[in-house]
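One thing: mind reviewing this one?
=====
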Amino acid sequence: MARQDLADALDAELMKRLLPTAAVHSVHGWLAGAGARYVTGVGAHAVEYVPARWSGILPWPDQLLEQSHTTSAAISRAQVVAVAREAVKGGELSEALVASYVWGQGRTGYGPHRLKEILAEPNVSDALAKAGAALREEGAVAAYRVLCRAVRGLGPAFFTKLLYFLGLAMDAPAAPRALILDQRVARVVRTHATRVGLETGLTSASGVAAWTWSDGGWTPHRYGVYLRWINAAAEQLVSSGIGWPESSPDLLELALFDGVWDPAR
């Protein structure tokens, strides 16, 4: 069987076996504790950044503290959505990219340098505009396809953040809704997929899972698989009786990012 056929078989099993009982229990505990503040939405989820470290990054959103501030500040998902909403209205998405990148990098030292290089790419504005149009008209996977390897230095771990915030900022983007996929989330899914493959007797389960759920460079097809799986898993949690809120796959993404569930255990 070809590797892609094995990958398709593993994807099919993954959709049949969304979240095991251990995962539901782990998520339930988190939802009753540290995750309780996100039951009504993940907008309050914030990271720290130091505005002065982003000095020279333009365009700098008005909603963020001025770059002269040298102390730590917080930027929340809700604030990034507000920036994205203004960017969508104005038809210039660079500020949305800046806000989502600052939120994604936080206090990471190399973030400002990398963002400055991305913004200097000659095709960045055009690529962002095309991705925004695709997101509104065709959905997240189409927008992902537009940005995939389109702008040097802007990989999927960060442009899926941008697409996520743009989707929330748009009045009625086409389905499916964009969600964040980064290395930490992919590793959780990889470990789970490996276990599912081994339990179902799939040949070379570990190798196939490592290939499909790698640390980066995911194809548009893989992003589509991720969206289907995490949306279905979120619906499973809604029906599980643990008090999981409706229409909240981004809450599950946050839980996976925070390491709430370790499929290896």
Q: What stands out?
A: Residues 28 and 241 are 9 Å apart (CA to CA). The chain is about 55% helix and 5% strand. The radius of gyration is 19 Å.
